[in-house]
Design a protein that fits this description.
It contains 16 helices and 25 strands. Strands 12, 16, 20, 21, 22, 23, 24 and 25 form an eight-stranded mixed beta sheet that branches. It starts with 9 loop residues before the first helix and ends in a 10-residue tail after the last strand. It comes from Stereocaulon virgatum. InterPro entries: Papain-like_cys_pep_sf (IPR038765), Peptidase_C19_UCH (IPR001394), Ub_carboxyl-term_hydrolase (IPR050185), USP (IPR028889), USP39 (IPR033809), Znf_RING/FYVE/PHD (IPR013083), Znf_UBP (IPR001607). Keywords: Metal-binding, mRNA processing, mRNA splicing, Nucleus, Spliceosome, Zinc, Zinc-finger.
Length: 566
Amino acid sequence: MVKRQAEESLEDSVAQDSPASKKARVYDVPEVYGHTNGFSAAPDPLFPLSEEKWEEDERDGNDILAAADIQEGELEGAASPLDDVDPLNEESAYSATSRQQAPIEGYSDLYLDTVNRSVLDFDFEKLCSVTLSNINVYACLVCGKYYQGRGPKSHAYFHALEVGHHVYVNMQTKRVYVLPEGYEVKSKSLDDIKFVVDPKLSKEEVAQLDRGAKDAWDLSGKKYTPGFVGMNNIKENDYFNVIIQALSHIPSLRNFFMLEDLSNRPELVQRFSVLTRKIWNTRAFKTHVSPHELLQQISRQSNKRFDLLQQSDPVEFLSWFLNNMHLALGGSKTKLGTSIIQRVFQGKLKIESQKITAKADVGDRLRFEEAAEVIVDTTRYLMLTLDLPAAPLFQDELEKNIIPQIPLTSILSKYDGLKAQEQMNTRKRYRLLHPLPPYLLFHIKRFSKNKFVTEHNPTIVTFPTRSLDMSPYVEPNPSMHSPGEPIWYDLVANVTHEAVRTRDDSVEGEAERKVWRVQIRDRARDEWLEIQDLYVQGIVAETLFTKESYLMVWERRKEGKGKARS
């Protein structure tokens, strides 16, 4: 049988009538989606647009993400353009997106005019506002929000595309980037923001903090004094604020946390260091700081014993804080002077105790008997507790309770080694030992608890602000200190308590709320200031004792420095 001859060649027939191959159809996609549909061409992984075209579309306001979605829908179901290509070697749309390594010449300051310093607040915990992660966090310098990462799949990248905020700073490295382009900005105009993120002063600048009075101004032109700024009371953390303010004005402690490299220490140490440097920031954007980061760490580490939602006792918090800081700094539980905490506050105390026998005279139970055995023990302390005499129960002629006054030296007599106290069936007496620490912490015990209620003692303690002689309360040791020579201490900070009655809808009618303040000495101006949360005001030194002192910080005067002043 003779085959019929074809009217045209196979090659001509395929070229005219045969549908385009799968490979050809996919390759022709970029030509189909030009500017005919009202959108600019989306960056395709196989045919990426130039950086100039991307920036042009972004400036024109074209919806790049919408165009990409349309293109994705049209290509859905299409096979891979290269059937013989190993899929493991194919790049995704994200990985194929090219990033600029540097700004275009002449455009190095692009987008920097959008930076809004007035909304920047770096005091809060560095968590991504979407994922709540604290890893690789960037802050948007336009709106102040935190986002994780800066890659093409990151939330900061999408924030830049959706909202048009382009300038971001890495909260760890302090490097600034422009997104979505991805290049680093090295403009000196952003150095003030980098400084506020993590303020660091030189050794010479720290040494001048207490020597010369220096004023500063925030972004709004408001005047403030570095070191004497308000601290935000987020809810009920005023007990925390007064302790941090007092500790940040102890020069030995402050200088250590401002100058030492603590990047390898636990988070508690690092966050206290940052907060201390922010309190003494000379180029702050605002006249107050927020302790949110340190509070969150303390709340986690103390199992919410101390947090910002419930008011606690400042002395209990100080005791917990100093012990945990000591351990976080690598301090030992047995050896002396293994951390800055011990070197600043720790001293030694001698305790003599004797059992109270049945033969003891009823009217003289506290007198040590010569025949009975006396047990002598030596212990260490970070804080000394001073007991107040019982408050009177009688009222004066105006039917108001009498508020007694007592000198500080009277309640310090607890440590003279002569006055004994009764505890259970034991009489005890105390004596301080040489050498005394550079700083003494006095806790004036005003609250006592029983099974039913917490009692408050409003006794006023009078004291000098300078020249407190501690030699009568220290056991003589000629090898360390000449007998008869005074040991002068000057007041650094004084935490006060005030009971404020507030209306309560309960049966009791009125409740009593505790208000904590701290009085701090400005060494440069030789003035005193009182700080209550965000409020900072001057106070006359002669009126400090009129408040209910609760915690006092005293600094030992260096030998031969200054004369005794009352």
